[in-house]
């Protein structure tokens, strides 16, 4: 095996692959460094080392990047900030918190309930949280505005236990854990769910990977608000508590570069490195802390490792030849996990016993003392020093890698065991041992009385410990977590802003994408309202015609634009600015949704509403980032999601992976999303106006749940003649989902054509062909939202089901079509399941035309003929249904198929070739 190969996954290779040609000289250099450290301390030594490295680089002396350091604490003992609190008092009520958190989950596992929960995560992370609660996490009443804390989802019992100590929750509330309907009024959600507990939780985090991603963009959004002059956020920190197993999620690591590039020194990751994921070790054969150190340092972050507690300080000071550090470096995580599941004697033999030097180090320690050599994440002093260093560090985000034990203090059945994540019950022996370990004043009789109802412990609000706890929260600005929805008033745009949408495109052809962009431009120009809009785009602004915004609104970049732009002489030059309005996330849909979430919840996190408008390829929205939109819904995000270049046949040459035939169905699965497929600019104007009123208009309380919605609007890149808004516009119909666009112009056999989005012009042309070629009378309806029609109808059905004997409410779609006779042909550029959403609520005979299957590259006309959702397919399908009713000649459908050459894809004429894809 090559030199250093056995430890290459643990340490950066510095000298282990190079020959030492003069060991005596090497020893002199090392002795000089040791003397410097002894006489002037580690801080001075760091400066000298950095200076030497800098000079080495200038002299072309190749020095490898140090991606990992020894498996010891980053902060030297002589640089640790002194702990300012009363450690004994804090340790005492931390024990109570750990007891109540475990008991809450245990009680929820009694036989008649059995709703689950997690004990071990908080047991191991309690110190990490309590140092924050007592000394760092600032509440919303703090003069600086308060911090934003993303709590590790599986640690939620600990946050409930603390709220119980603070008097915010009662015992009855704790007993409502995971029983949100059966214990309504006294219920606690399983994990941090703001939608389920809208005055408590701020950020949903248990969908692994989304928490770290959203925390990064929350920190960016805080700076965005500050740099645009909307709110002073300079004294606000973002904290994200994560698991080391969670860091395997691509989302957890995939956006680290943004935090580094933006120099987000207001952001702190705390990774709870208990070395375990859900089923076993994170890196049994490796070292996850070393891996993460290298990854974060390579991404440009400040890295602080908290590996060992203070009990190790004296041992490390005695380690003159580096034997102990060598063992620490080479011991893999699977072994560290085993050590905590064994005993002090086992650790003495298998860890310290590897060399005579290390064995001698602990010869005066008892087995119990060896067992009590804590890991750094359980030491108040070490954690405090790390947090303080993190919050004071400038120019980079910080990650704290804290070494802990999963299930710490819960006893030998739990600590460090592979199955500890799934373990939810404590035996009587476990309870007694846990009580003794924590010194909880509860008797054996109380525990033996009912195994599944061990008592909670609270010493009373007047006890010195609780008074201390409450004083610390007052000094830091109030309780955390806490969510507030009261916000500053929003002045909505006046009528004139919507004129551009209402007047149509005149003699020009314009796609609905362009109609939307023109409306957005006027909304952003509104003096009172415009500054609150946050346009968010991946690297596709030019595709959507939004490059016109670059010179005026500018692209947000906290570093400004420090280069000479290649297109600076052009009218539509690319311009970045510290105060830019556009959030341009690059080729990064996941980051764009995270930015959308941060901006769309600013009304609650900052009391300053922002209106995010996220524009993207419709295919790359709910299909690609659906989980993030669920998290956005949980966080009660408000804003507009614009699925541009929509439809399966509108992108012509782009082909399969760009051909969206199903996003409305995916969007319909999210209860917070209102999905619309408008055909014209004036419909877009009505929908956006309705959305703004619903989110921030008068008539509803700030915290009204009905405000917490996201509007998904699909727009197309196919140019059409945009009509002006009709004088008698059915606004209610547009908002609720359907209105009569074009009544039949002749008398004859009757049919109804329902269409949405880009297919509405095809329906109008089919109306003309049916009248001129077959004498058929067709009404054309614009269906702006199949999904909203279905939701309304389903709600009416549910009301009738639960109120027998009462007059049943008629669904809106049924009301609108009440006088519409004849069969219905529903046509869209999506799969047939989209219009089929309303089929059961329409008494008429019903047929759907759409684009099922995979997309492909071809002309629009050929694609529509292939899918049989084009003009002449609407005509033929209408004739078939009328022929079955005996209202047209039985041969008419066959004659029409031959007349229009329906089986020939080259005979299609629907649509045009205009518009960039």
Proportion of strand residues: 5-15%
- Rg: 33 Å
Q: What characterizes the major β-sheet?
A: 6 strands, parallel
Form type: elongated
Domain Pyruvate dehydrogenase E1 component middle: 494-721
EC number: 1.2.4.1
Keywords: Oxidoreductase, Pyruvate, Thiamine pyrophosphate
Organism: Arthrobacter ginsengisoli
Account of the 3D structure:
The structure is a single chain. With 917 residues, this protein is α/β, with parallel strands linked by helices. Helices cover 38% and strands 10% of the residues. The longest helix is centred in the N-terminal third of the chain and has 36 residues. The chain is elongated. The N terminus is likely disordered.
Question: What attributes characterize this protein structure?
Answer:
33 helices; 38% helix; alpha/beta; 917 residues; PDH/Transketolase; 6-stranded parallel β-sheet; 10% strand; thiamine pyrophosphate
């Amino acid at each position: 095996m090559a030199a250093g190969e056995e430890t290459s996954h643990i340490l950066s290779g510095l000298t282990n692959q190079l020959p030492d040609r003069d060991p005596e000289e090497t020893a002199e250099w090392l002795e000089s460094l040791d003397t410097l450290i002894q006489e002037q301390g580690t801080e001075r030594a760091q400066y000298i080392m950095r200076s030497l490295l800098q000079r080495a680089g200038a002299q072309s002396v190749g020095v490898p990047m140090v991606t990992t350091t020894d498996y010891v604490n980053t902060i030297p003992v002589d640089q640790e900030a002194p702990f300012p609190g009363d450690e004994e008092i804090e340790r005492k009520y931390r024990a109570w918190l750990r007891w109540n958190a475990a008991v809450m989950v245990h009680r929820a596992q009694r036989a008649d309930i059995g709703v689950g929960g997690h004990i071990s995560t908080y047991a191991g992370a309690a110190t990490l949280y309590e140092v924050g609660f007592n000394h760092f996490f600032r509440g919303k009443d703090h003069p600086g505005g308060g911090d934003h804390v993303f709590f590790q989802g599986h640690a939620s019992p600990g946050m409930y236990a603390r709220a119980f100590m603070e008097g915010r929750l009662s015992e009855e509330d704790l007993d409502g854990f995971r029983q949100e309907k059966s214990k309504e009024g006294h219920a606690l959600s399983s994990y941090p769910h703001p939608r389920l507990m809208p005055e408590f939780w701020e950020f949903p985090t248990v969908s692994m990977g989304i928490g770290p991603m959203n925390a990064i963009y929350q920190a960016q959004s805080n700076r965005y608000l500050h740099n645009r002059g909307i709110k002073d956020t300079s004294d606000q920190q973002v904290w994200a508590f994560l698991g080391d197993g969670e860091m395997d999620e691509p989302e957890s690591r995939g956006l680290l570069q943004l935090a580094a590039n933006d120099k987000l020194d207001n952001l702190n990751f705390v990774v709870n490195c208990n070395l375990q994921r859900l089923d076993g070790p994170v890196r049994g054969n490796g070292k996850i802390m070393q891996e993460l150190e290298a990854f974060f340092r390579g991404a440009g972050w400040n890295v602080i490792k908290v590996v060992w507690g203070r009990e190790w300080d004296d041992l490390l000071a005695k380690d003159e030849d580096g034997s102990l550090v060598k063992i620490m470096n080479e011991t893999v995580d699977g072994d560290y996990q085993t050590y905590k599941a064994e005993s002090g004697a086992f650790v003495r033999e298998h860890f310290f016993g590897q060399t005579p030097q290390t064995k001698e180090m602990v010869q005066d320690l008892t087995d119990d003392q060896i067992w009590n050599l804590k890991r750094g994440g359980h030491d108040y002093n070490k954690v405090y020093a790390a947090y303080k260093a993190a919050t004071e560090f400038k120019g980079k985000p910080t990650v704290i890698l804290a070494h802990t034990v999963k299930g710490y203090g819960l006893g030998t059945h739990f600590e460090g065991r592979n199955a500890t994540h799934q373990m939810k019950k404590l035996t009587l022996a476990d309870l007694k041992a846990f009580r003794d370990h924590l010194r909880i004043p509860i008797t054996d009789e109380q525990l033996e009385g009912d195994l599944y109802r061990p008592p909670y412990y609270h010493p009373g609000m007047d006890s010195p410990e609780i008074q201390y706890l409450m004083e610390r929260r007052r000094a830091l600005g109030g309780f955390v977590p806490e969510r507030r929805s009261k916000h500053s008033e929003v002045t909505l745009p006046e009528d004139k802003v919507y004129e551009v949408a209402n007047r149509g495109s005149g003699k020009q052809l314009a796609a609905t994408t362009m109609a939307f962009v023109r409306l957005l431009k006027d909304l952003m120009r509104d003096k009172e309202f415009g500054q609150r809009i946050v346009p968010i785009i991946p690297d596709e602004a030019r595709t959507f015609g939004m490059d016109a915004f670059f010179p005026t609104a500018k692209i947000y970049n906290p570093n400004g634009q420090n280069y000479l732009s290649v297109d600076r002489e052009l009218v539509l030059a690319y311009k970045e600015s510290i105060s830019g309005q556009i959030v341009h996330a690059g080729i990064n849909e996941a980051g764009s949704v995270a930015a959308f979430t941060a901006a769309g919840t600013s009304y609650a996190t900052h009391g300053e509403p922002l209106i995010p408008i996220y524009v993207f390829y419709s295919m790359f929205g709910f299909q690609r980032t659906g989980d993030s939109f669920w998290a956005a819904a949980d966080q009660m995000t408000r804003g507009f999601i614009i699925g541009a270049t929509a439809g399966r046949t509108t992108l012509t040459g782009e082909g399969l992976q760009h051909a969206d035939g199903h996003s409305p169905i995916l969007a319909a699965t999210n209860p917070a999303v209102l999905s619309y497929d408008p055909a014209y600019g004036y419909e877009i104007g009505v929908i956006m106006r309705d959305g703004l009123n619903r989110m921030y208009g008068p008539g509803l309380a700030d915290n009204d749940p009905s405000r917490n919605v996201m509007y998904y609007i699909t727009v197309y890149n196919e140019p059409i003649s945009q009509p002006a808004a009709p004088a008698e516009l059915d606004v209610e119909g547009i908002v609720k989902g359907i209105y009569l666009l074009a009544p039949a112009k002749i008398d004859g056999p009757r049919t109804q054509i329902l269409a949405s989005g880009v297919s509405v012009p095809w329906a109008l042309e089919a109306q003309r062909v049916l009248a001129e070629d077959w004498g058929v009378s067709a009404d054309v309806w614009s269906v702006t939202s199949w999904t909203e029609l279905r939701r309304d109808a389903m709600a009416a059905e549910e009301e009738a089901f639960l109120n027998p004997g009462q007059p049943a409410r008629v669904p809106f779609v049924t009301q609108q079509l009440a006088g519409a006779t004849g069969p219905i042909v529903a046509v869209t550029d999506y799969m047939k399941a989209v219009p089929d959403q309303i089929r059961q609520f329409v008494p008429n005979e019903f047929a759907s035309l759409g684009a099922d299957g995979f997309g492909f590259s071809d002309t629009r006309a050929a694609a529509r003929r292939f899918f049989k959702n084009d003009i002449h397919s609407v005509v033929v399908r209408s004739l078939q249904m009328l022929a079955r009713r005996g209202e047209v000649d039985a041969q008419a459908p066959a004659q029409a198929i031959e007349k229009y050459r329906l089986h020939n894809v080259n005979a299609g004429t629907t649509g045009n070739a205009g518009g960039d894809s």
